[in-house]
Amino acid sequence: MPRRVVISGASGLIGTALTDSLRRDGVDVTRLVRRPAQSPDEVEWDPGYRALDPGVLAGADAVVGLSGASIGRFPWTPKYKSTLLWSRVSPTRTLSAAITALGADAPAFVSASAVGYYGSAPGVKLDEASPRGESFLADLCGEWEAAALSAASTTRVALLRTAPIVHVGGVLKPLILLTKAGVSGPIGRGTQVWPWISLEDEVRAIRHVIDSDIAGPVNLTGPTRATANDLGFALAVRLNRPFVVRAPVWGMKLALGSDATEAILTSDADVAPRVLEASGFAFDHPTVEAAVAAAVPARR
Predict the structure, then answer these.
(1) Which residues contact residue 250 at a Cβ distance below 8 angstroms, ignoring those fewer than 6 apart?
(2) What is the pTM of this model?
(3) Which domain holds residue 246?
């Protein structure tokens, strides 16, 4: 059990749940915030513009970097694509520099990334040894991970290639609105494989990585293959609503832009959590149906 963990991006969906989980077990959590600190557990920082005092990280067992603008905000205009990139790379570089400055006393660095690293690879089983894909999101993940790995000569660096979170505050948020309105259905062809993970397993997996000696990339994704239709239909059943209205690819590209549509909605990536499973991690929600049931109350 770690004694102290420093988290950036602690106010997001994953960061909030991770902070709560650690604190329930008596772990001290220091949150890096981009506003004046309002409590003893907060430290103000300005990544990309001002170096972080390494003393803030001294004595911590791990630093968890979760900073980044929302991937789920559309459309991805050129300006917002720049925001997506630099809201991840700048904080990660700032953390890496502060960690490196601590030398032999540096904490482990557990840095967020995403399964978008692999791009779209229909019919291919992907794991941590698979090459980087070809897309804006894949390139973003590559730069994000490179920023974290600049600390690898000093300490253990783990790269959390996280799948979309099956939660009402995650990938389910827009789908629930459509499903409740009775206009949900296949997205494009609907048979594209979507990586996924429940919020509970995401937090448990991050804590597992903190507590272990895992270094390098680790896929945080559910162990059972699921398509876009599997997820959408499970949600429709849970909400007792139809699943019949197909969303055409041309319409999604018109509304959301080509990059966002191809990187998230129509991307086909069968990503396996090889490293997690080999390290003995067991999922509480091993299927997408179980993840949806845990996240969404049944509607009669």
Answers:
(1) none
(2) 0.96
(3) 4-295
Domain membership of residue 181 (yes or no) is yes
- List the CATH number of the domain containing 42: 3.40.50.720
Count of domains in the chain?
1
Residue 300 in domain: no
At 171-199, the pLDDT tens digits run 999 899 989 999 899 999 999 999 999 99
Report DSSP letters for the chain, one per residue: --SEEEEESTTSHHHHHHHHHHHHTT-EEEEEESS---STTEEE--TTTSPPPGGGTTT-SEEEE-----TTSS---HHHHHHHHHHHHHHHHHHHHHHHHTGGGPPEEEEEEEGGGG---TT-EE-TTSPP-SSHHHHHHHHHHHHHHTTTTTS-EEEEEEPPEESTTTTHHHHHHHHHTT----BTTS-SB---EEHHHHHHHHHHHHHS---EEEEE--SS--BHHHHHHHHHHHHT------B-HHHHHHHH-HHHIIIIIS---EE--HHHHHTT---S--SHHHHHHHHS----
